[in-house]
Amino acid sequence: MFKVLLSTIICLMGFIHLAHAQITVSGNVRNADTKEVVPAVSVTMKEAPNGDYTNDQGNFRFSAKKQYPVTLIFSSLGFETKEVTVTGAGALKVELTPVSVLGREVVVSASRFTQKKIESPVTIERISTKEIINSPQPSYFNMIQGLKGVDVTTSSLTFTTITTRGFNTSGNTNFTQIVDGMDNQAPGLNFPLGTAIGLTELDVDNLEVLSGASSALYGSRGLNGTLVMTGKDPFKYQGLSAQITQGVNHVSKGRSNDPFGPSPYYDWTIRWAKKVNDKFAFKINMQYIQAKEWMATDTTNTNGPGGPLTDPNYNGVNRYGSKTSVDINPFLQAALAQTPELAPIIDPLLEKGSNYVARTGYPEYGYLSNDAKLLKANVELRYKIRPQLEAIISGTFGKGNAVYSNDTRYALTNFQLGQYRAELKAEHWFLRGYTTRENSGNTIIASPTAQLINEAWKPSFNPATGDGWYPQYTGALLEAMAGGKSYTDAGNIARAFADQGRPDASSPLFQHLKDSISSLPTSKGGTLFLDKSKLYNVEGQYNFTHLVKFAELIAGLNYRLYRLDSKGTLFPDNDGPIDVAEYSAYVHATKKVLKEKLSLSAAFRYDKNTLFEKPRITTRASAVAEVNRESFIRFSYQNAYSFPSNIQALQSTPVDYNSFASGGSSRLLNGVYQFDRYPAYTLESVAKYQQSNNPADLQQFTLSDIKPQSVDAFELGYSSLIAKRVLIDVLGYYATWKNFIGYVNVANTPGTDDPTAFKDHSTYMAYNIAYNGAEKVNTYGYAASVAVEMSRNFMAKVNFSSDFLKNRNNSQVNNFNTPNYKFNIDFGNTGFGNKERFAFSTTFRYRPGYFYQIGFGSGNVPASSVIDAQISYRLLQAHCRIKLGGTNITNVYYRNGFGSPAIGAMYYVSFAYNVF
Fold first, then answer.
1. 457 close to 274: Cβ distance less than 8 angstroms
2. CA gap 344, 329 in Å, rounded
3. Measured between alpha carbons, how far is 228 from 452 in angstroms, rounded to an integer?
4. What Rg, from alpha-carbon coordinates, does the chain have?
5. Quick one: how far is CA 157 from the chain centroid?
6. Among the four residues 81, 115, 156, 355, which has the most C-beta atoms within 10 Å?
7. Which helix (H) or strand (E) holds 616?
């Protein structure tokens, strides 16, 4: 009996051992054509959750509680999926066959779940890491400007703003930018931060751009589109990678007023990722960029025709300090009273009307810092609690210098941005929390700082002494005219006289004045921002598809808190931070019908902002019909909205100082007008006059509470893959904007109902106000793209897009700022020659001239034709790549925004190790 029992126990233990036996599979994966190792290949076990990715040497290894035989599935974009049966222990050697990627790309941002790009219900553009490697652009972010329908404004070398379908401007708050699930916006200013705290060059897995309205899934401010950036998973992309780019820009001193000679460009990037074991992996990223800025040098006179030698009221677009402008008639009248014999000279001047004269301005070069610097660092830890449950902790920090354009040029020096995340991610759900923190550093507000420098050196008028710049100018003007000089020549003589001793921008006195003014907060009469605003965000999403079966269904919740903390320099928060909260909930469902030939989807979103009484409901409905296996027709209706940004709703910032006897000054004052909560915003109610282009034509302006703006957009598109080699996409859209938020200049003249009091520079307060236009604004356009994958790894792409604005509200600055059409052409090869060591790519971007509006002026942006190119060579055994390239290689300077810098050529050589 004992023997029987013992035998039974031994057999049972053996059975239990077999049932829980653990096997280990390992091997190496290579390209079947070139015999190179293939990293980042997904290796999964069929009908099991276990798997791995090949590392930078092409190796994989993982364990599973299974018994032989098992089947492994090898998959990677650009290669045929392969199944291999493993019957026993031993390292495998697997070769994958390269295939075309056209029509096979998958996206997640269009519907928040994975689907083929060609089957997307809305227009979406995608950039992969392989395309970044082969691009002539030294920065992945600049590749976006070559996508279909995308516009950019380059304010400086390290600050580029993107948008789609019009309304393009620096610091666009109506375009959402998501980085690894986090909204990449400045908490106070609300516009996306570009690459300031985005991904480093070597850590980009892919970029996806949704054109047009996208609020239903991504919330407020998604009116012009959304950019979703995804970083590389350290479990998938492993190893040490480094890239050093050395270049030169400003190669033609004097061209397009470029004040520099040839200047070095440095971009050093490093990434280290390691899978410590099957459960834990980490990555560390760092990137440093340093160069001389592109400088804004537009000398166009914003006050009318004429230049600095022909117009006494000259105010150049990129001349700072000359915004101070005074009608000198009071000084002429005072001179006439004191010296009646000058009547033959003074009377004709008074009879012709006003005689405005501007103070002398400083050019941007020598005034604003020309040192572009950007340091980014990122650390991410990942731990797999279970094969399908992962914990992620990450931190990203950015610091540097940048310049952006808005109501003037803003030079951000030593700004700091941090973004920190904790996330749980499972197969069907995620829970994510993150915070964004900004420190504006030392900010120079170009126009008011220069105006105050002029005033600190010599006041425009000192009532106590009767002296000042304008009295001196007027006296010298009359003296020169009495000597027989013309009004224009006499004005130049008078300016030289009044400017005697004026400090040059390179002088110690100028630097002292600039430092003292820019280090004093705006709330105390200086121009320093003290912005340390923060953003806190918690969100979760669940995919119910495996439970409901009948449809793909996802739902999510989001809570966001802005803690505005500017010490009174941006917002009325002298008494403490202002909290603005947003609550959101969304649901998205997709159902395939008609034998799965028609895909119907709908999304609904609820949002509430504590600054506004009413919540917003937004929707999206779409239909995608399969014409055949590789052709699809899509139709969508999308409603999007934007709560006014924190800047539009709450800003109170000095912009232009006119410190003459009349006591006038200007502020940015934007929109909620909740005067009971923020008494600093109280305006006198007696007279509010709207400025027009003609100062003599002033109209009464009626204040009202600002409201969220919205857009209803319809899109019809068609995508088709022909013969597996040609991918085409065409679309048309039409959108209606309601409560469109624009800007207007308004003057408040206390104690009088006479609009001429403002016109004649009596005591007044001027404001630049964000408000809702009454008229509906319509936009429409169309676009098309063709991509052709030819033999021997050659690829050609061309895209064309067109955007139009109807019912422009001319009482607003509406910033449509896009040409009626534009196109891009790409041609390249990802590998040719012996073992496909060589590669090249070229791009051509054309933009016709177009009208551009921004806070400090408006005018035409000239047409531009830009060619970028690169050629590279791979050292296969060393895992290295050498790239020689250039952007704007013809060196014909161009601008993509009014008042923005002129961009010339940059030529570079890049050395990359282990970049894949």
1. no
2. 15
3. 42
4. 31
5. 13
6. 156
7. strand 616-628
Q: Is residue 871 part of a domain?
A: no
CA 195 – CA 293 distance, rounded (Å):
16
Check which CATH number belongs to the domain holding 24 and give it. Answer: 2.60.40.1120
Query: How far apart are alpha carbons 221 and 649 in whole angstroms?
Result: 13
CB-CB contact of 311 with 286 (8 Å): no
Nearest by Cα to 381 from 360, 395, 362: 395
| Nearest-angstrom CA–CA distance, 296 and 299 | 9
Alpha-carbon distance of 504 to 840, in angstroms, equals 47
**Hey, what are 508's tokens?**
């110690």
**Among 340, 535, 295, CA closest to 434:** 535
Residue 93, token pair as written in the block: 């050697």
Residue 863 in domain: no
User: Can you tell me the distance from the alpha carbon of 118 to that of 115, in angstroms, rounded to the nearest whole number?
Assistant: 9
Q: Is the distance from CB of 724 to CB of 791 less than 8 angstroms? A: no
What tens digit of pLDDT does each residue of 592-625 get? 999 899 999 999 999 999 988 889 899 999 999 9
Identify any residues that bridge with 177 across adjacent strands, giving them in sequence order.
227
- Alpha-carbon distance of 823 to 801, in angstroms, equals 6
- What distance in Å separates the CA atoms of residue 640 and residue 617, rounded to the nearest whole number? 9
pLDDT (tens digit per residue) in 126-176? 999 999 999 999 999 999 999 999 999 998 888 888 999 988 888 888 889
Buried b (16+ CB within 10 A) or exposed e, 649-686: bbbbbbbbbbbbbbebbbbbbbbbbeeeebeebebeee
Helices within 564-653 (DSSP H only):
646-650
297 lies in some domain? no
Domain assignment of residue 885, yes or no: no
Find the domain containing 17 and state its range: 2-96
Q: Cβ of 261: how many Cβ atoms within 10 Å? A: 12
Phi, psi of 558 (to 5 degrees): -145, 135
**Burial (CB count <10 Å: 0-12, 13-18, 19+), residue 462:** middle
Please give the C-alpha separations between residue 617 and each of 49, 133, 190, 639, 642, in angstroms, as whole numbers: 39, 41, 21, 9, 11
In DSSP terms, 800 is beta-bridged to 784, 823
CB atoms within 10 A of CB 730: 15
**CA pair distance 667, 527, nearest whole angstrom:** 12
Q: Which of 510, 645, 507 is nearest to 169 (CA)?
A: 645
CA distance 444 to 434: 30
CA atoms within 13 A on the CB side of 785: 24
Q: Please enumerate in sequence order all residues whose Cβ is within 8 A of that of 638, keeping only pairs 6 or more positions apart, or say none.
A: 122, 212, 213, 214, 215, 216, 619, 620, 712, 713, 715
> When comparing pLDDT for 698 and 637, which is higher?
637
> Which residues sit opposite 737 in a β-bridge?
711, 777
The answer to whether the pTM exceeds 0.85 is yes
By CB atoms closer than 10 A (0-12, 13-18, 19+), residue 757 is buried
Q: Among residues 714, 738, 796, 844, which one has the least CA distance to residue 123?
A: 714
Long-range CB contacts (< 8 A, 24+ apart) of 678-684? 678/572, 678/650, 680/572, 680/574, 680/652, 681/572, 681/652, 683/748, 683/765, 683/767, 684/748, 684/749, 684/750, 684/751, 684/765
Q: Which residue has the tokens 């995308």?
A: 150
CB-based contact 291:263 (threshold 8 Å): yes
Counting Cα atoms < 13 Å in the Cβ hemisphere of 438 gives: 30
DSSP letter string over 656-670?
EE--STT--EEEEE-
Beta bridge partners of 600: 591, 623
Q: What is the pLDDT of residues 757-775, one digit of tens each?
A: 545 444 455 666 777 876 7
If you write DSSP's letter for every residue of 16-55 in order, what string do you get?
Answer: HHHHT--EEEEEEEEETTT--B--S-EEEETTSS-EEE--
- Separation of alpha carbons 906 and 226, rounded Å: 29
- Report the alpha-carbon distance of residue 453 to residue 321 in Å, rounded: 8
